[in-house]
Design brief:
By secondary structure, the chain is mainly α. The chain has one domain.
Length: 174
């Protein structure tokens, strides 16, 4: 069970705002699941990464080290630092961090038939260089280890499962 130690006094609307942010994230996640083209997928992912980062940053302010340790030791929470790095890249440079996942369906190699199974996170090497003002080697390493090349919908599902775990945590505001 996750136990968080509060380090900051709560404002009267903190819990309400966090719950609204999780609702916003889940709405963006649903739109991403329903996206059928790169534009729709990118727009919904851009919004979802904004929500994940806002929620993460607020929980970090409220719970500090206990939150970060719980997140980084959780099989779902561990994707959040990589999502935060993607959000920072989106907010400062607008790179297209997603691409269609053309996984071979039948025939091996390039396959006889390929079906898109959704969107995948592009590799860091496929993105424009980061703006030196916003370098984050720790976040980039998290992105490379947990996101790049993988299905973007599964990343959002992991974030949702992390938030669900926090909702069950009696010492957390969610």
């Amino acid at each position: 069970m996750i136990v968080l130690a509060q380090i900051k006094s709560l404002g009267p609307d903190d819990a309400r705002r966090l719950r609204l942010a999780v609702t916003g994230f889940r709405a963006a996640k649903r739109r991403h699941e329903d996206a059928r083209d790169l534009g729709s997928a990118y727009i919904s992912m851009f919004e979802a990464t904004m929500w994940v980062t806002a929620i993460n940053d607020q929980l970090d302010v409220l719970y500090g080290t206990s939150y970060r340790e719980a997140r980084d030791q959780d099989r779902y929470g561990i994707v959040v630092p990589g999502v935060r790095w993607a959000r920072n890249r989106h907010a400062h440079q607008l790179p297209v961090t997603l691409d269609e996942d053309q996984t071979p369906f039948f025939g091996g190699g390039k396959g006889i038939i390929s079906l898109s199974v959704g969107m995948r996170w592009r590799k860091v090497s496929e993105l424009p260089p980061p703006d030196p003002k916003y370098r984050d080697s720790t976040g980039e390493a998290a992105y490379q280890a947990r996101l790049e090349g993988r299905n973007s919908g599964k990343t959002l599902a992991a974030c949702d499962l992390w938030f669900t775990e926090l909702e069950r945590c009696p010492s957390c505001l969610l």
